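Encode chain A's predicted structure.
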Amino acid sequence: MIEQHSTPRLASLTRDLESLDDRCRANAFNDILLMANEGNGDAMFQVAQCLQKGIGVEANLVSADRWLRMACVATPASRLALYIHGMQHVLKQRADADAHRGIEFIERAASQGYVTAILALVEIVENGICDIKPDLSRAYRLLAGTLDNNADSQLHEAYMSFVERHSPITQLLDS
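Encoded structure for chain A:
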């Protein structure tokens, strides 16, 4: 799945990574690597994905992780990198896994309006995971805070489902 990127050039190169032509994928990777070396967080995330999956370059998990972490501290950070890195922590898929640190990364992705991160964050807070205790009031506030006239339809559906599951919601409204 191709995500929108910070520049049309990066979006075009990302599409080229899906080519059946090895040379095209390698050229796209090299061009994305140049953008990443210039500090583009979204390009850093794409470099990490290519290195993880061996797209246009030989797979290298250590380098992939380094690029993923760099994409999280770029200015601006890649919202996809923040989400992926955060979920790796929460799901304990990293040797240095820390669920609370993972939540911080997911919160940063959610604050950039990344719907997938918002929904994941609400689910984690609603149900609890690892050593994170459920907090229905916080989950409700997170979800309700994202709704406006321009909100994604997934957010509206998630809100309605949340309200149905936790009806009556009066105790959540008072928080």
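The chain has a mean pLDDT of 89.
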